[in-house]
Amino acid sequence: MDGKPRSDETPETQPPANAAGEASSTDSPDESGQDGEVARLQTELEAARRRVNELARAYQDLNKDREEFKQRLTRERERMIDVERGNVAGTLLEAIDELDLALAASHQDTSPLAQGVRMIRESLLAKAQSTGIERVEVVGRPYDPNVAEAVDMEITPVQDDDQKVVAEVRAGYRLKDRVIRPARVKVARYVAPAQA
């Protein structure tokens, strides 16, 4: 024994002759372990994808809520501006009414003073209209309590004129869709003529 292995002896470090078959059977637990690991990673990946989708939807909902809030704030601000504009317009309209009364008293007056009052009235009315204020036309139309106040009544023998506005005592005005000052009107009331 010289320490060298003989050719007919199989060293312990070398695998036996059927090592290929045994090696494949030992790889099988590793492959099933890898398959398990892959399945676990796929499950985690799917869970992560679901979580990302949930977060993306939550972000979209939050963004949508933020946009709706901004729009609501803008609408509220515009409404408040319209209310204030209506308040200012009310004061301006009262001044126009007073000028109308002064002009009605001097209807035929052609003096420079009356002409100046007419010019001031027209200027104030033009400024009011430039802010979006419009006069409500009611004469000859059916009476609508949403835009006018009935302050007087006139009897009419014509049935078609029943509940129609026949005269305007004070003009009414609106700003956009909101009536800032209702008109004061005289409304016709039908009464059948007396039979003789």
Automatic annotation (TrEMBL):
GO cellular component: cytoplasm
Gene Ontology MF annotations: adenyl-nucleotide exchange factor activity; protein homodimerization activity; protein-folding chaperone binding; unfolded protein binding
Domain of life: Bacteria
Coiled-coil stretches noted in the UniProt entry, renumbered to this chain: 38-79
Region (Disordered): 1-38
Keyword Cytoplasm: yes
Any one of the GO BP annotations: protein folding
Family matches, as Pfam families: GrpE
Localization (cell): Cytoplasm
Keywords per UniProt: Chaperone, Coiled coil, Cytoplasm, Stress response
InterPro entries: GrpE (IPR000740), GrpE_CC (IPR013805), GrpE_head (IPR009012)
Role summary: Participates actively in the response to hyperosmotic and heat shock by preventing the aggregation of stress-denatured proteins, in association with DnaK and GrpE. It is the nucleotide exchange factor for DnaK and may function as a thermosensor. Unfolded proteins bind initially to DnaJ; upon interaction with the DnaJ-bound protein, DnaK hydrolyzes its bound ATP, resulting in the formation of a stable complex. GrpE releases ADP from DnaK; ATP binding to DnaK triggers the release of the substrate protein, thus completing the reaction cycle.
Quaternary state and interactors: Homodimer.
Entries under HAMAP family matching the protein: GrpE
Similarity comment text for this entry: Belongs to the GrpE family.
The name this protein goes by in its record: Protein GrpE
